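Review session, final week

We close the course with one last complete record, chosen because it touches almost every idea we covered. It is Ferredoxin, a protein from Ectothiorhodospira haloalkaliphila with 84 residues. Go through it on your own first, then we will talk.
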Amino acid sequence: MALMITDECINCDVCEPECPNGAISPGDEIYVIEPSLCTECVGHFDAPQCVEVCPVDCIPKDPDNEESHDVLMAKFERITAGAS
């Protein structure tokens, strides 16, 4: 399941550089997560790094983008294919 950023986001800028897939970017009012790039850090880390650094706990799982660990791993492999 991809993650999402809720409107409790304070735009503190700490989550964006922590995302190994580049899935987090500034939105119109708050940061947003691109579901097609979010692997919840599967393949990179044991826990989602954005969740680990968020000071206001505003990054839950996105119920509209449910994915199993296997699907997240396949997405990680697709995203990192060809990377050196």
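Two points worth writing down before the exam:
The longest helix spans residues 69-80.
The beta strands are 24-26, 31-33.
Good luck, everyone.
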